[in-house]
């Protein structure tokens, strides 16, 4: 287990469920996702049943139980975004990078997720990449956004 994660758990071992969400947030920030091993370790350290941790973490869309790409793409699929074309945006992303929602590219650069609502209905379809939001996204606009993010990959 990562030394930073160990310190987080030692610091919060007596906090119980009251500090579970901030602990999971800190760990995910370090690890990138909440692996089964991490969930088990949090359970042992904090005295909270694994199923309770999964129940709490799965309620929030900020937590991931699978590794995400370095560029995590979230597409709103709420009613307003859907009516305005979010499905076409997801299809274009699939064409451009070859993955469907819930997957990560083989090189680990991109991952894709659809979410029920991002709370920006008048701006839909909305796409988020690395906490940056793009509004009124079309197939053409998402192609340009992906090209920009691919260029970042090539610069590394």
Tell me what the structure shows.
With 156 residues, the chain is α+β, with helices and mostly antiparallel strands. It has helices at 3-12, 20-31, 36-46, 50-59, 79-83, 86-97, 139-155, and strands at residues 71-76, 110-115, 127-129, 132-134. It folds into two domains: 3-59, Arc Repressor Mutant, subunit A, CATH 1.10.10; 71-155, Glutaredoxin (3-Layer(aba) Sandwich), CATH 3.40.30. The protein has a four-stranded mixed β-sheet, covered by helices on one side. A hairpin with a 2-residue loop joins strand 3 and strand 4 (132-134). The chain is elongated and about 50 Å long.
The major pleated sheet works out as: 4 strands, mixed
What class, by secondary structure content? alpha+beta
Enumerate the strands of the largest sheet in spatial order, edge to edge or round the barrel.
2-1-3-4
SSE string, helices as H and strands as E: HHHHEHHEEEH
List keywords for this structure.
Arc Repressor Mutant, subunit A; four-stranded mixed beta sheet; alpha+beta; 7 helices; 156 residues; 4 strands
Q: Would you spell out the secondary-structure blueprint of this structure?
A:
Elements: H1 3-12, H2 20-31, H3 36-46, H4 50-59, E1 71-76, H5 79-83, H6 86-97, E2 110-115, E3 127-129, E4 132-134, H7 139-155
Helix pairs in contact: 1-2, 6-7
Summarize the structure.
With 156 residues, the protein is of the alpha+beta class. Helices cover 49% and strands 12% of the residues. The protein has 7 helices and 4 strands; from the N terminus they run ααααβααβββα.
